[in-house]
Specification:
The chain is mainly α. Helix content is 64%, strand content 0%. The longest helix has 23 residues.
């Protein structure tokens, strides 16, 4: 369970860094949740504020777990890789540079964990479409498909649609699938995806376009 991962990491941080008082609030840079920006919190953690890392963990632990799970399709492995991702954040804190966006750095670590794990397993698995999105406001490609069927029939159609979409995602080239997942499920910007994957923004946009075109063809029967 992700909460167990949080507890393990929190204990490690407390042991290594020790408890420290909250830093002064009133930072100019703010996160969407109203708290200090990720980069501010990471800077505080590097300065010895363990509670700053706790906030980063609470803010990004769930999304990172879901991101990894959609790649490895294995909850237990996803928990392990989530823990290892944040362990690497702890170990690499001294190398973090404020000018780098924290989420770019974090998702790069998580992506590399997925690649290494899948390479070790000598196979790649497509993500589960049953996992929750990052927020209630997020929408999947499936949400765009309208249906006027009665509720009793709509469930059957939704189930069929999920199966078809999952198969379509599995058939996408890996570079297209990961761009689609980061953009659609993690709501990352093209520039950030480009930095994470090590290609140009135009290449990312092209991969996203090809992915959408392929999925659109696969889902033609479900179009309104």
């Amino acid at each position: 369970m992700v909460s167990v991962v949080f507890a393990v990491l929190k204990a490690l941080v407390d042991r290594v860094r020790g408890r420290s008082a909250d830093a002064d609030e009133g930072e100019v840079a703010l996160h969407a949740d109203g708290g200090p920006a990720d980069e501010v919190l990471m800077e505080r953690y590097c300065g010895g504020d363990a509670r700053a890392f706790d906030r980063l963990l609470k803010r990004h632990g769930g999304p990172i777990y879901n991101f990894i799970l959609r790649h490895v399709h294995n909850p237990t492995l996803a928990e392990d890789l989530t823990q290892e991702t944040f362990m690497r954040v702890i170990r690499g804190a001294g190398d973090y540079e404020r000018r780098a966006k924290f989420t770019t750095w974090l998702y790069t670590i998580a992506r590399n964990q997925c690649i290494d794990a899948l390479r070790r397993a000598k196979h790649r698995r497509h993500p589960s479409l049953d996992q929750p999105l990052d927020s209630a406001e997020s929408r999947t490609l499936g949400d765009t498909v309208k249906s006027d069927l009665p509720d009793s029939e709509r469930g059957v159609v939704d189930s069929e649609f999920s199966v078809v979409l999952e198969r379509a995602l599995a058939r996408l080239p890996e570079e297209q699938r990961e761009v689609f997942l980061m953009r659609q499920y993690q709501n990352l910007q093209f520039q950030e995806i480009a930095e994470i994957t090590g290609v140009s923004p135009n290449t990312v946009k092209s991969r996203m376009r090809y992915a959408l075109e392929s999925l659109q063809r696969a889902l033609t029967d479900f179009a309104p």
